[in-house]
């Protein structure tokens, strides 16, 4: 496995240490499970959708949980007292757990199970205090005059 050195990213970027850490973790982590298959879609500039194929799972067997910057989707198949006698079993029904790292200010808006597809809608909402703002540049004499007016 090839290793990458992200230390230059730590030195030249301010506040992106978490992003570099995510890259490090992704390279070191075991392969992400491929079951059940899923898509991540960019719906619009700040809206995303995760679509996961969960055929055979009931709504009560799926749990979606967010904690800080992590979205966890868990499927636990309930065991039937008398399991069916399959002649061919092509639809997987094993338990699963998927974890997604969410960027700052991304939150889950809704989740819907329809025709075996679990759709999870996400949105990124940046607080007003963190949005870019213009800073006015005063002339040196303007600040002195403003202070004199306030004092009077």
Automatic annotation (TrEMBL):
Under SUPFAM superfamilies, the record lists: HSP20-like chaperones
**Keywords per UniProt:** Stress response
Mitochondrion found in the keyword field: no
Instruction: Please give the Gene3D superfamilies that the UniProt record associates with this protein.
Output: 2.60.40.790
Where is each SHSP domain found? 29-140
- Family affiliation: Belongs to the small heat shock protein (HSP20) family.
Q: What is this protein called?
A: Small heat shock protein Hsp20
Q: Which organism is it from?
A: Herminiimonas arsenicoxydans
């Amino acid at each position: 496995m090839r290793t990458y050195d992200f230390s230059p990213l730590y030195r030249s970027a301010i506040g992106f240490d978490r992003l570099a850490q995510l890259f490090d973790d992704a390279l070191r982590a075991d392969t992400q499970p491929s079951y059940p298959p899923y898509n991540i879609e960019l719906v619009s500039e700040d809206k995303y959708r995760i679509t996961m194929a969960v055929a055979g799972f009931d709504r009560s067997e799926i749990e979606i949980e967010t904690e800080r910057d992590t979205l966890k989707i868990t499927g636990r198949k309930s065991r039937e007292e008398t399991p069916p006698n399959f002649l061919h079993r092509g639809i997987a029904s094993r338990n699963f757990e998927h974890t997604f790292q969410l960027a700052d200010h991304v939150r889950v808006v809704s989740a819907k199970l329809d025709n075996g597809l679990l759709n999870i809608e996400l949105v990124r909402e940046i607080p007003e205090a963190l949005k870019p703002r213009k800073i006015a540049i005063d002339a040196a004499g303007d600040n002195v005059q403003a202070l004199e007016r306030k004092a009077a």
